[in-house]
Design goal:
By secondary structure, this protein is mostly helical. It contains 5 helices and no strands. The longest helix has 15 residues.
Length: 101
Amino acid sequence: MYLDDIASEIAAELRPIVIAPMLLRSYAVLLRVKGVDVTSEDIHDAWVGWFADVDPGHPGLRPFEELDEAMRRADEPFAAAVRAVAARHAIHHHRSGQLPR
């Protein structure tokens, strides 16, 4: 499936970090929608959507603007990986560039 293909590219950017497949798919959706404009806040929102079922009491399940600086910075490597894949495919938003289908 095309989202899994994109997720695999994002995962390759993040190695040796291992990410859950469903979270990687969320990042792939962000790539398709926002391309190189994806932000750490976008990444955090996707993570919250996934992690709320994993650990509903986690202290990071708050809006990005309520996080301390260290927690905000923790999302940046994931945003950078999404942007790197988007840049390789010249994806600036959901209407430009082509990704594997």
